[in-house]
Structure formats: C-alpha cells, structure tokens
Amino acid sequence: EVQLVESGGGLVQPGRSLKLSCAASGFTFSNYYMAWVRQAPKKGLEWVATISTSGSRTYYPDSVKGRFTISRDNAKSSLYLQMNSLKSEDTATYYCARHPFGVSDYWGQGVMVTVSS
Amino acid sequence: DVVLTQSPATLSVTPGERISLSCRASESVDTYLHWYQQKPNESPRLLIKYASQSISGIPSRFSGSGSGTDFTLSINGVELEDLSIYYCQQGNSLPYTFGAGTKLELK
After folding, report:
1. Do residues A41 and A91 lie in contact, with contact meaning Cβ atoms separated by under 8 Å?
2. Do strands A58-59 and A68-73 pair parallel, antiparallel, or not at all (unpaired)?
3. Model confidence pLDDT, tens digit, residues A8-59
4. How far is B13 from A77, CA to CA, in rounded Å?
5. What are the tens digits of pLDDT across the range B51-88?
6. Which residues of A touch B (CB under 8 A)?
7. How far is A107 from chain B, CA to nearest CA, in Å?
8. Measured between CB atoms, does B69 come within 8 Å of chain A?
C-alpha cells in the first residue's frame, strides 16, 4: 500500500523559513517523480514543485521560484520542501504527491503551514 | 500559463441521476488532463487520468472524455458519497495548473 506521510508544518513568522518532509513507503520511491501541491484555506489546489527521480531536475511555478527548494533522499525514501522568505500567502495545507508524468496519483494527508506574525 | 475553467461552480444533484462536469482549457492540452475528487476534510484522490483512462479502485460510474481544450467528467448514477469538489488539472505544460473546482451538493 502506497503511503505518504508529511511532517514539519506549523506556525512561522513572515520572512522566516520552514522545511517540510514526506516519508514514502509501499513503492519504489527512486522510480518516481514526486511533487508538492498546496491548498490555501477554503481555496483550490496549486502545484508548488516537482522533482525528477534522481533529483537532478526540479520545476517550480513563478509564485515560489527562488524561495522554495524541493529535494529528495532516495536512500531514505523521503521528499523535502525547503521554504524560505515565507509570506502570508504561503499559508496552506501542503500535500506530498507521487507524480509520474505530471499526474498526482497518490497523495499524503497534508500538513498545515501558517505564516503569521 | 494554461487556464482551466470549470463549470458549473456548483451543481445540485439528486441521487441516481447522470451528471456531467466541464473543464475547458485556454489552449490545447492534448489529452494531458486529469480529474481529482476531494471530499470534505480529505486529501484529493485521482479519479481519471489522461482525459479518459480509468483508475484502479475508482467506481465505474465515473468516466472522462475530451481532448484538446474541452473535457467532461461524467458520473452515471450519482451517489451520496460523491458529494465532493472535483478538480481538473493539466499536465501538458509547465506550470501545471488546476481548475477552480466544481462542488457537487445535494438538491
């Protein structure tokens, strides 16, 4: 059974940093692209980042480019999202997703990030 | 960026009826269009990939069609458990984008 479990969320002040983690199990992690998708409170879904199987290629929308960094550790079957210079508009639930060929076929339960002073 | 417009925003349904949800892209996405269901307080779940490909474990009453810019998600015989928000997402070009969603509610 595919499982994705996010952690690391919480309350953080504007301008500060936070790092999210996602522990994967039930599949060969190193064979899959992975992604982060977020959802602001009562809003829709927004793609945040994608990483290739080896980690050599990463992709971001303009809204987070230069501030967020996606990474992975295939030996630990773990995915990460380093978020710097956080803004209030980054407040959202962040989902880790298995992401082959642009499709998010499995999702974690999500972790809440609140950016507020 | 590809803009996905979903309609209607809200659809009131009666159990047992057949319904169709629309997703229109601002430019062609070929068949790189995927549908997700999100029940209240749950994570999204993949329903249909590549416009019409079924997903293991998803009830057969869900089906998808379309290509290019116009796509449809159909539910043949709505059940109470289908009351959710449905999102489309394009995977044809970066940045990947989602529609704003269609909410199914009980009539």
Report:
1. yes
2. unpaired
3. 999 999 999 999 999 999 999 999 999 999 999 999 999 999 999 999 999 9
4. 42
5. 999 999 999 999 999 999 999 999 999 999 999 999 99
6. 37, 44-47, 50, 59-62, 95, 101-110
7. 7
8. no
